[in-house]
Design brief:
Protein name: Glycosyl transferase family 2
Order of helices and strands: EHHEHEHEEHEEEEHHEHH
Number of helices: 9
Strand content: 15-25%
Largest sheet: 10 strands, mixed
Radius of gyration: 20 Å
Shape: globular
Organism: Flavobacterium plantiphilum
Number of strands: 10
Length: 297
């Protein structure tokens, strides 16, 4: 118990796991990879996995800490996002309540996972009775929007995203809607930064397949390093969530990571973290107090 357990979902973009698993490998006690037994996506489409990927896992897993969890994760009666949420719940049950349940998507690359674990360990007491002390933990995405011929377009400010919980009562994907504790850890998120063919595959199969804005793809295809600053509102569901883009003249993830970490406007300030965490503490303290008051009467 109280182990660092990290879960990944294997699907049509499984090759990206070769980039997302290594950053968490050494600081994780165990890694679980969920794979649909019939190789079916949340939208009911088939996908294939090249045998070379499984061979890569065997060769990479020198500490023997990676485990596959295969089950039926596609239920035709459920929507894509409901299948998404269900799979994450089943995966976390497999990982074991009483441990830290961390889920990382295949296109998310932690910049300093060891630091994230150190932050998480400060809350180990929440694992003593998880059901009575539900909490979730968020980091901040640095979102890659698109690879251009010469560089990378990215969303010009970090966006919060939940990565861990002590109790997996997920309501929407990996969000539990419980109290959130924010850390200043950064995670590169390739998100929609794919080839057009790969992006079309993702839009058809991921949990948000029914929510995508009808004008999104047309704009995405049109944007490049020469015109990005003439547009705004780039998010694929509610466009104004990603208001503006910025550009770096490199296509190498390693260089991109170093430059992004050094940019002052992308750092999460202590005052911002304090205000977010105090707000969450107060909000859920009030909820508990209100619930107790109603129960008393």
């Amino acid at each position: 118990m109280k182990k660092i357990h990290v879960g990944f979902l294997l699907s049509y973009d499984y090759e990206k796991l070769k980039q997302s698993i290594p950053p968490v490998y050494h600081a994780a006690d165990r890694i679980f990879i969920a794979e649909d037994s019939n190789k079916i996506t949340w939208s009911g489409n088939k996908f294939n996995v090249d045998e070379s990927f499984y061979q890569w896992i065997i060769e990479f897993d020198v500490d023997n800490k990676i485990e596959f969890y295969r089950d039926n994760f596609y239920i035709p009666e459920l929507s894509a996002i409901e299948n998404d949420t269900r799979e994450r719940h089943l995966l976390s049950l497999k990982m074991g309540i009483g441990n830290w349940l961390i889920q990382v998507d295949s296109d998310e690359y932690f910049i300093d996972f060891k630091s994230f674990v150190q932050n998480l360990r400060k809350y180990d007491h929440y694992l003593d009775d998880p059901e009575k002390n539900k909490v979730q933990f968020a980091c901040f995405w640095l979102i890659i929007y698109k690879y251009t011929k010469e560089g990378i377009l990215y969303v010009d400010k970090p966006m919060k995203s939940v990565f861990a919980t002590n109790y997996p009562n997920y309501k929407y994907a990996r969000r539990t809607n419980e109290r959130t504790v924010y850390f200043d850890n950064l995670v590169l998120h390739e998100s929609i930064a794919r080839t057009e063919e790969e992006l079309l595959c993702k839009l058809k199969n991921w949990g948000h397949s029914s929510e995508v804005d009808k004008n999104f793809l047309k704009k995405w295809k049109m944007i490049d390093e020469n015109n990005y600053d003439q547009f705004e509102d780039f998010y694929y569901i509610k466009p104004n969530r990603w208001k503006k883009l910025d550009y770096l003249p490199t296509r190498k993830i390693g260089e991109f990571k170093k430059i992004m970490v050094s940019k002052s406007k992308l750092r999460i300030s202590k005052s911002y973290l304090m205000s977010k965490n105090f707000g969450q503490w107060f909000k859920f303290l009030w909820k508990k107090t209100d619930a107790g008051f109603q129960e008393y009467f």
